[in-house]
Amino acid sequence: MMIRTGRAALAGALVAALLAVSAGGCTGDRRDRDRDPEGFRPGAAGVGDAYFPNYGNGGYDVASYRLQVRYDPATDELTGDATIEATATENLSRFNLDLAGLTVSRVRIDGAVVRHARDGDELMITPAAGLSQGRRFQVRIDYAGKPTPITSPDLGSGGLLATGDGAIALGQPESASTWYPVNDHPLDKATYEIEVTVPDGLAALSNGVSGGTTTSAGWTTWRWAERSPMASYLTTLVIGRYRVRAGVHEGKPLVTAIASTLPPGGPAERSLARTGEIADFLATRFGPYPFDSYGGIAVADSRIGYALETQSRPVYGPAFFTTGPNLTVVAHELAHQWFGDSVSIRSWRDLWLNEGFASYAEWLWEEHEGGRSVQATFEREYAATDWAAPALDPGRAEIFSRAVYKRGALTVHALRRAVGDDTFFRILKSWTEEKRNGNASTADLVSHAERISGRSLRPLFDAWLSGSTPPAIP
C-alpha cells in the first residue's frame, strides 16, 4: 500500500425472509438455494479472502466500469450512474456488489429494471431470469447520497472524504465502495471510464488518460480512462482547487496536480516534477513502464497521512513534503505501478509482494542518486529487524507493519545476493512482463524465480519471509 506517516453481519432469518418477499432478494441460505430453479444459485457475498472474507463477491467477473459521478462540495451530495460490464462465472440467480452508505434508486440488467435489496454494505441484485455461466451482461445502477468513509478499528479509514474545497476518495484495503458499486477485491481487476462533474473552478482528477473537459451551466465535467485492468482500491477521485500541469513523457501523457494551498515551486511540486525521471530509472530495473499515463497528485489535507499508489497517478499526503523535496516516496509509489498495480496480489496475506519491492525501489533510488548503497541499507535494516514478525501472512492487523515493508525488502535483496545481479534483474523483468495486468501470489514468485535461476529457492524465501531467527546472509 501506502507509505504511512503516523462489513456486515448476516441478517437473521426473519430479515432475510422479508427481503426476499418485499425486495425480491435471495438470502443465499440453504433453503433459498434449494428453491432456485435449474441449478442457479446466488453468488457468494465475498471472495473468501483469509483476511477480508466479505470483500468482493463471487459468481461473476467484471470487465469494465463506466462511472458518471456528480459531486457538490457545498452539500457533500454525490449522484452516480454506474455501468458495469461483466460475465457470469457460474449459473447465477442473484449476485452482489459492494456499496457502502449510498442509496440505490434503480438497477437495470441489459436495459430491463430488476429487483434489488440491501444487506449492510452488500447490494443484492436479482435478475428477472438466471444468468447462465459464460453469459456477458450489463448492469446499470443509479445511486446517490452523502459518502461516508469506512472505518476499521485496526486499519484506519478509507473512502470518499469531504474536504474544504472538494473531496478525496482514497484508501487501502478498501475505499471504492464509498463512491461507486464495485466488486471490491484485487482479484477482479477491470478497466475504467470515469466522468466527474463538479462546480466550475474545481479540478476533478482520477486515474489514466485525460479525455478533456466540458462545461455547462456552472458545472465542468472531467473525463478519465484507465485502459489497463485496475484493482478497485487503486481508483481515486480528487476534487478541489489544484494547479494541474499536463505534459508528455516518453510519448505518454504526464499529469501532475498540486493543491492550491501548497506553495508554488515548493517541495511537493519539485518532487512530483521528477516523476518521469524516476519512472525511467525504475524501468531500467523492472522493465517497461506498464501504463498509458504517468502522474501524481499532492493533496493538502492533513488527514491524509500516507501516500497511495493509485494507478498511473499516485496520491501523496502533505506530511511527506514538510522538510523539502522527497524523492524517496515518489520512487516508492512509482515502483508500485509495476509491483501491486500491474502485477496485483491474489490475497491480502501476500501484501509484501507490493511493499517489499516498493521499499527496495527506495534503496535502489537512493544509491542511484549517490547516497547510501543498497548493501549498506540492507545491512542496517537486517540489524534492526524483529525476526519474530513475518513479512508473509503477518495477520490482518499487521498488513501495513514494518515487517511487510522492510523485511520484504530484505528478502528481495537476499534473492539478489543468492542468484547474482544478472539473474536477479532477469527475474524481475520477466516477472513484470509475464504477470502484467494479472494477479500473483508468493508461491507464484518463488516458482518464477526458481525457473529463471535454475535453483531451488523455497528455503531462502521461507527463511527471509517467515523464519523466526535471523537468516544466514547469502
Polypeptide structure, described:
It is a single chain. This protein has helices at residues 13-22, 30-35, 267-272, 275-286, 327-335, 352-368, 374-384, 402-419, 421-434, 442-453, 458-466; strands at residues 3-4, 41-42, 60-72, 77-88, 92-98, 103-109, 112-113, 115-119, 122-126, 136-145, 150-152, 156-162, 167-170, 190-199, 203-205, 209-216, 219-230, 237-240, 242-249, 252-259, 294-298, 306-308, 315-316, 343-345, 438-440. By secondary structure, the chain is α+β, with helices and mostly antiparallel strands. The strands form five sheets. An eight-stranded mixed sheet has the order 7-6-10-4-3-14-17-16, with no helix packed on it. Strands 1-22-23-21-20-19 form a six-stranded mixed sheet. Helix 6 packs across helix 8 (402-419). The longest helix has 18 residues, at 402-419. The two termini are 28 Å apart. The relative contact order is 0.10.
